[in-house]
Amino acid sequence: MHRDHSLTFWPAAVSDGRLCVKAMSCLFCRILDGSIPSQAVYQDDECYAFADINPQAPVHILVIPRAHIASTAEAGKEHSALIGHLFLAAAEIARSKGLTKGYRSVINTGSDGGQTVDHLHVHLLGGRPMTWPPG
Ligand code: 5GP
Ligand code: ZN
């Protein structure tokens, strides 16, 4: 059967019960649906964590919500618990990776924030001392 892919929606494109057309082309939604492979680190009902393809530290993991939210700039009050959950998942992963001396968990937002993938994600960086301020 011919399928018009411009009209194809993936389950991962469901955000808060609404189908989000933008999510169809989202790299991290495609990682979530398995069409792009990733190295899984942790997952639960709300989030998925995987190794960053271009690690900036000995440990560099991305924690993403299963729901497509473009960035913290697009997030609303209804996402408060979810965003908290992402940081606590990062803390749990940090424990499991033995990052006893600390780590950095950070969200980049927008072009000035250095965001390159428009699906909200927490970077978990560890295994070396971090510098401040970040570049
Ligand atoms: P941002 O720059 O948006 O804060 O972070 C995006 C991150 O996604 C970058 O650290 C980049 O290395 C990572 N990334 C981009 N494409 C892929 C990919 O296909 N697979 C994985 N595992 N990470 C990716
Ligand atoms: Zn997405």
What does this structure look like?
The chain is of the alpha+beta class and 135 residues long. The chain is 17% helix and 21% strand. The protein contains 2 helices and 7 strands. The chain has helices at residues 27-32, 80-96, and strands at 14-15, 18-19, 40-43, 47-51, 59-65, 103-106, 122-126. It has a 5-stranded antiparallel beta sheet, with helices on one face. β1 (14-15) and β2 form a beta hairpin. The termini are far apart. Residues 1-13 have low confidence and may be disordered. Guanosine-5'-monophosphate is lined by residues 27, 36, 38, 50-54, 62, 108, 114-117.
In short:
With 135 residues, this protein is α+β, with helices and mostly antiparallel strands. It contains two helices and seven strands, in the order E-E-H-E-E-E-H-E-E.
Features:
binds guanosine-5'-monophosphate, 7 strands, two-stranded antiparallel ribbon, single chain, disordered N terminus, 135 residues, binds zinc ion, alpha+beta
